[in-house]
Amino acid sequence: MKRETFNPAQAQQVAAAFAKHQVDYMFIGKSGAILLGYPGTTQDVDVFPRKDADNGQRIVAALTELGFVIDSVLASEIIRGKDFVQIKNGPFDIDLVFAPDGIESYDEAKARIDMSSGFPVANISDIIESKRAANRPRDAVELPLLQAFREMYEKKGS
After folding, report:
1. Residues 6 or more apart from 79 whose CB is under 8 A from it?
2. Residue ranges of domains in the chain
3. Cα 48–chain centre separation
4. Would the pTM of this model clear 0.90, i.e. be above it?
5. Residues 6+ apart with CB under 8 A from 51
6. What integer best gives the mean pLDDT of the chain?
7. Contact 28/130 with Cβ under 8 angstroms?
8. What is the distance between the alpha carbons of residues 57 and 64, in angstroms, rounded to a whole number?
9. Tens digits of per-residue pLDDT, 66-94?
10. What's domain 8-151's architecture?
């Protein structure tokens, strides 16, 4: 099965289901940057949810409603807020990143949240710092592009 490329319609589906179930979250990673206007592609939706059991239960309910198959093991990982939960058995791929590299706390990141796209998106600087801290080879190519985008994005906003 060919993996679908992330598109804003997926973000709309996640946002609607998460709003209905009162999930506390923000988009992060490359999908978050794309929602801010970054001209890239990615294969999955990256979400940084608040790590607490009640929020985890709301996430399970929202994802189930979206058509993801959540078995008891996966539900347990989500509810306890396992650092990284990758889900590929639904209408699209989604990564729940409860502990993104380079971001001290959810509350600090939420204080800097960017709502300009109509979606709760991590601040572009947090997205870049998270990618830098992850130190993955695939991010090495992307980082200078994201930094150039940030400069353009910040000029546009001022």
Report:
1. 53, 56, 57, 60
2. 8-151
3. 5
4. yes
5. 81, 98, 99, 106
6. 95
7. yes
8. 11
9. 999 999 999 999 999 999 999 999 999 99
10. 2-Layer Sandwich (3.30)
